[in-house]
Write a structure and sequence with these properties.
Oligomer: single chain
Keywords: Endosome, Protein transport, Transport
Strand order of the largest sheet: 1-2
Shape: elongated
Subcellular location: Endosome
GO biological process, one term: endocytic recycling
Largest sheet: 2 strands, antiparallel
Protein name: VPS35 endosomal protein-sorting factor-like
Family: Belongs to the VPS35L family.
């Protein structure tokens, strides 16, 4: 090949372009039809959610929060089929109890069977008499000095010890030391008499009752095996008349052992644990036994111990009899109400006072037990409204009824509570002076009222006034905010915005007068604000209240202010379905919150935090609208000054200003478009990412060109050319390094297509000023010559140069005089462009040589055909240099690839139907 091939562009009129085509079987843009058959029982969205569920991992910190909320609400909202499954519901309730009732105090455990304790001597016995004598000796040894007290245990250590006792029972049972297993169970039951750490007692009951359940199951299974062998028979199917005598004798033996326990508490617990074993003797005696045990519990002097043993009795009863056990729940609840005043006995008050427990903390220890008894009672009595009236009447009759009242409100369904809401509020109001659980009662009542579909306006106002008088008199700020949260939701649903604003003003006054920093209650205040935002009918109206923003900004610490601002913005944009916000007060309030979020970003902020903050601010910017375009542009100027730290916000601002420029094209003079172009030109350099800067320079230049702001468009394009060498090969996105070559290739193609309609600067002596600068810039770009991006860009430049030599360009922009009209295809202009084309063509030949040296055969073949196609399509084949170069490129492609390749074949087809010069070249190629 010659070292240089002067490029000459064909001078032709606009004609039909012959484009190489490939035969395909389907249209490349045709969408594949997918037939989805929806389930008869599920909607399409539900099916899609099920498909995506395995890929959506819940935040582990939120998983426990949602689990606890679900568990606590289980007894309130449970379907009819699950009401009989008490075991399942109780297991869910156990988890919430263990999570709630914890302690940091030191605990004590008394046992002789923990590792390091009593060592039992195993001796062989020869006859039955000696065996019975040995067992009696073991029982007598229970009272000897082998029992050890382990003190100073942490909560986790106590739990570990209890699990160890459970394992010791199983080991003793498996090693035929059943009396030892019995003794361990007795010692576990005696631990339930210890209330030295009351705060932990509900959790201790759960742990130890599980041990007793396991022991009872071991005894029951042994008796079942003695009578029925390995048959899989259930409790309901056991007929005492078919039980073998040896099983009955063994059962009586266990019952006698249980009856020989001297202390009342372990004897009752063990009798309840072994209650199911009575079925081997007489099934008819079991229910009277439950009634007898219900009465026996009256002898328990400690009301806290007594109510939890009632819970254990009801649990065992429901396990054995299912729905038939519900009357026992009602009986035990009645027994508890009859003995209710024991809770407030001076002895109990002295004990919890010595443990530094407050009155409400002490009363809350009874709540899980009372809730469980009410749960079974409600299932037994289906006329809930009458039952509620009956219980409320008892609350009026007895003193200090707040514990019972709180449990009643939380246990009953919302419809019944709503009907009796006025009566409940009256009870609370009458006893408000001495109530320590008033906040729980009011809060629970408010939660029920939030479920009211519609409430009479007058009644809603009366209820709201009553609860506010009660709540505003509370001395504890945390309790006040706990009550405020559901009741403000009720006000949002049922009352007007004026009422809501009055409540918010009162809230601010209360928090200020309390004398405590609002930052101590930032999470509760945030929950209140979230409730308001989620349930007020018109969320924009909230910002028009004079008390809302002062409440939001009441917290002062940076972290609390930021969290509050993010919460408000997030919920607001979830609720606000309108794409535009035109109220200046709302816009100003949102901007205030956005500034708080933006100012919290610093050098140590994680990427996700910055991304989340940027999304919130961008949504605010996109939604804000001012009728006056000048005011809108000034708003964007203020946003740029306020949000310089976040690139995502600056990018959104540039897009917004470009949109504003197109909006003002028809209604305003040229000055608005120039001001917008200047805004973009000044804003883009603030971005850190070079690729983003290049993209926005191109977009801003195109918008300026569309508005006939030639100088501003040229400035943006010139800046773009200067940025291209700084674009990195990889950018960090979503924690991954992603290549930029594909995006840069698209960017350059878009840029070159825009340069076709950009007129030259008349003040410049250089022809095609921006394009010539771009060509020179390619020499400084750190791209390898064999990179696809490099030689593809050269081919695009060659296409542009050839098109710019034509007398009429393929496309124009209205009101923009392009170079075809400006120069009229004058010889000097065309000659300059052909010189550029010659240099580009020469550089492509150098690339071909570099590809050959690098053994890149496929790339070399593709580039040779691409350049060959441009010569025959755009070059003047009458010139020997052009036809000679085309021939050489064709021969090079044939050496590298079979001539039957699709691309080469399609090019030959075009030559056959092309102009005479093309056909001459084809003949020449055939000869060669």
């Amino acid at each position: 090949m010659p070292t240089s091939y002067p490029w000459t562009t064909a001078k032709k009129c606009r004609r039909k372009n012959y484009v190489a085509s490939l035969e395909v079987s389907t249209h490349p843009l045709k969408m594949d039809n997918m037939r989805i058959t929806p389930s008869l029982n599920k909607t399409l969205m539900e099916s899609l959610q099920n498909w995506s569920m395995p890929f959506e991992e819940l935040d582990p910190l939120l998983r426990f929060e949602k689990m606890n909320v679900a568990e606590e609400s289980l007894p309130l909202d449970i379907c009819e089929d699950e009401k009989e499954n008490y075991l399942k519901v109780w297991n869910c309730k156990k988890t919430s109890i263990l999570n709630k009732y914890t302690t940091g105090e030191k605990l004590t455990i008394i046992s002789s069977f923990l590792p390091g304790g009593e060592k039992t001597l195993i001796r062989q016995v020869s006859n039955l008499n000696e065996k019975v004598k040995h067992r009696l000796e073991q029982l007598d040894d229970f009272d000897e000095a082998s029992v050890r007290k382990t003190m100073g245990l942490s909560q986790q250590e106590f739990v570990t010890k209890v699990h160890m006792l459970d394992e010791e029972i199983k080991k003793a049972w498996d090693s035929e030391q059943r009396v030892n297993a019995f003794k361990i169970a007795i010692q576990c039951s005696k631990l339930l008499s210890d209330i030295s750490v009351m705060q932990f007692y509900p959790s201790k009951f759960i742990l130890l009752s599980d041990v007793l359940n396991n022991f009872g199951s071991l005894v029951f299974d042994r008796l079942k095996n003695k009578s029925f062998g390995n048959k899989n028979i259930k409790f309901q199917d056991i007929d005492p008349s078919t039980v073998l005598e040896i099983a009955k004798e063994t059962c009586q033996n266990w019952l006698f052992k249980m009856a020989s326990i001297r202390e009342l508490l372990p004897r009752v617990y063990m009798e309840i644990a072994l209650l199911q074993c009575n079925v081997f003797i007489s099934r008819e005696e079991m229910k009277p036994t439950i009634n007898r045990l219900t009465n026996m519990i009256r002898g328990m002097g400690n009301p806290l111990v007594a109510i939890y043993i009632r819970v254990y009795l009801c649990n065992i009863s429901s396990k054995l009899f299912g729905k038939e056990s519900e009357p026992y729940y009602k009986d035990n609840l009645s027994e508890f109400i009859n003995e209710y005043q024991q809770i407030f006995h001076p002895t109990m008050l002295k004990k919890y006072g010595a443990q530094l427990l407050t009155a409400d903390q002490y009363l809350n220890l009874y709540v899980p037990a009372v809730d469980w008894l009410l749960f079974g009672t409600l299932n037994w009595n289906h006329d809930q409204l009458n039952l509620l009236e009956e219980l409320l009447k008892k609350c009026n009759e007895i003193e200090n009824s707040e514990l019972l009242l709180c449990c009643i409100i939380s246990a009953f369904d919302s419809s019944s509570v709503i009907q009796k809401s006025s009566a409940i509020l009256d009870i609370i109001r009458k006893n408000a002076d001495g109530m320590v659980m008033m906040h729980q009662a009011l809060s629970s009542l408010g939660e029920h009222l939030c479920h009211a579909e519609s409430y009479r306006q007058v009644s809603a106002e009366v209820l709201s006034q009553t609860w506010w008088k009660l709540a505003s008199g509370m001395k504890n700020t945390a309790n006040f905010l706990q009550v405020l949260e559901p009741w403000i939701q009720f006000a949002c649903i049922q009352l007007s915005s004026q009422h809501i604003n009055v409540i918010l003003r009162g809230t601010i006054r209360y928090l200020i007068k309390s004398g405590q920093p609002p930052d101590n209650y930032s999470m509760q205040i945030q929950n209140v604000v979230k409730r308001i935002l989620k349930h007020i009918p018109d969320v924009e109206e909230l910002f028009l209240m004079d008390a809302f923003m002062p409440l939001v900004e009441l917290v002062q610490t940076s972290a609390a202010r930021t969290s509050m601002a993010r919460t408000v913005l997030t919920v607001f944009f979830e609720r606000n379905k309108s794409e535009r916000i035109d109220d200046p007060i709302v816009i100003a309030s949102l901007m205030r919150l956005c500034r708080i979020v933006h100012d919290s970003i610093n050098a140590v902020s994680v990427e996700d935090e910055s991304k989340w903050s940027g999304e919130l601010i961008v949504r605010c910017i996109q939604a804000a609208r001012h009728e006056d375009l000048d005011t809108q542009l000034n708003f964007y100027v203020e946003c740029r000054a306020a949000f310089l730290k976040l690139d995502a916000v600056l990018v959104a601002l540039v897009h917004a200003v470009n949109t504003l420029s197109t909006r003002g094209a028809a209604s305003r003079g040229r000055w608005l478009q120039r001001a917008c172009a200047a805004y973009c030109y000044i804003t883009v350099p603030s971005l850190q990412c070079a690729l983003s800067r290049a993209t926005l320079y191109l977009l801003s230049g195109q918008v300026a060109l569309l508005n006939n702001c030639i100088g501003q468009a040229e400035a943006n394009f010139k800046a773009l050319v200067g940025v291209i060498p700084n674009i990195p090969q990889y950018v960090q996105e979503d924690g991954q390094k992603k290549p930029t070559h594909d995006r840069v290739a698209g960017l350059i193609s878009n840029f070159l297509s825009t340069l076709l309609v950009l007129p030259d600067n008349v003040d410049s002596n250089s022809k095609a000023y921006i394009l010539s600068g771009f060509i020179k810039t390619l020499e400084r770009v750190e791209w390898r010559k064999i990179d696809t991006l490099y030689y593809t860009t050269l081919l695009r430049v060659l296409d542009l140069l050839c098109e710019m030599t034509q007398e009429q360009y393929a496309y124009h922009i209205d009101s923009v005089i392009s170079n075809d009209e400006l120069y009229g295809a004058e010889e000097e202009f065309v000659k300059c462009l052909e010189n550029y084309a010659t240099n580009v063509c020469q550089e492509l030949l150098v690339v071909l040589k570099a590809l050959s040296d690098a053994k890149e055969t496929k790339k070399q073949y593709s580039l040779s055909l691409e350049l060959f196609w441009r010569i025959i399509k755009r070059g003047d084949l009458q010139q020997s240099s052009m036809s000679g170069l085309a021939s050489n490129l064709w021969m090079l492609s044939q050496k590298l690839q079979d001539s039957n390749a699709k691309y080469a074949k399609s090019i030959l087809t075009v030559l056959q139907g092309g102009d005479p010069a093309g056909r001459q070249l084809l003949e020449k190629l055939k000869v060669q």
